[in-house]
Amino acid sequence: MMRHARLAALTVAVTLAIAACSGTSTPAPSVPPSVAPSAAASAAPSTAASAATGSAVSIANFSFQPPTMTIAVGTTVTWTNNDSTGHTVTADDGSFKSDKLATGASFSQTFAKAGTFAYHCSIHPSMTGTITVH
């Protein structure tokens, strides 16, 4: 029985080492009940890092990508114009507005209070986006 537990623990360690070296996510292997709980716990992937929200918006192909974003109060969002023409980032409620952004230029806005902030490009009004702040 002890040999089975050691073999299972070794399998978990090798699987984690391979996943770490490959840079890809590998599901945790099934660990038999005879393996100590600490070995099983260390095999489970962490979800904390994958829950992080982004704070960058790309302007490309006459659209904001992503078009919607949810962030925490105090987060700074940066829009970067990756399009071949100029664009703006203009809050529908007038709370923020960029100058015309040339290709490669960026605009940043820090969201200090909770709420939903719809925005658009004042040059191309069909381009819209929304930032939800919690």
CATH superfamily (homologous) name of the largest domain: Cupredoxins -  blue copper proteins
Number of discrete domains: 2
| Amino-to-carboxy terminus distance | 51 Å
Structural class: alpha/beta
Main pleated-sheet profile: 4 strands, mixed
Which CATH class of the largest domain? Mainly Beta
Principal-axes geometry comes out as globular
| Strand residue percentage | 25-35%
Radius of gyration: 23 Å
DSSP strand count: 8
Oligomer: single chain
Account of the protein in words:
The protein is an alpha/beta fold and 134 residues long. A hairpin with a 2-residue loop joins strand 1 and strand 2 (63-65). The chain is built from two helices and eight strands; from the N terminus they run ααββββββββ. The protein has helices spanning 2-22, 37-43, and strands at residues 56-60, 63-65, 68-71, 76-81, 90-91, 106-110, 115-120, 128-133. Helix content is 21%, strand content 28%. The chain has a four-stranded mixed beta sheet with strand order 2-1-4-6, with no helix packed on it. It folds into two domains: 2-48, no CATH class; 53-133, Sandwich (Immunoglobulin-like), CATH 2.60.40.
Task: Give the SSE layout.
Layout: H1 2-22, H2 37-43, E1 56-60, E2 63-65, E3 68-71, E4 76-81, E5 90-91, E6 106-110, E7 115-120, E8 128-133
Parallel strand pairs: 1-4, 3-8
Antiparallel strand pairs: 1-2, 4-6, 5-7, 7-8
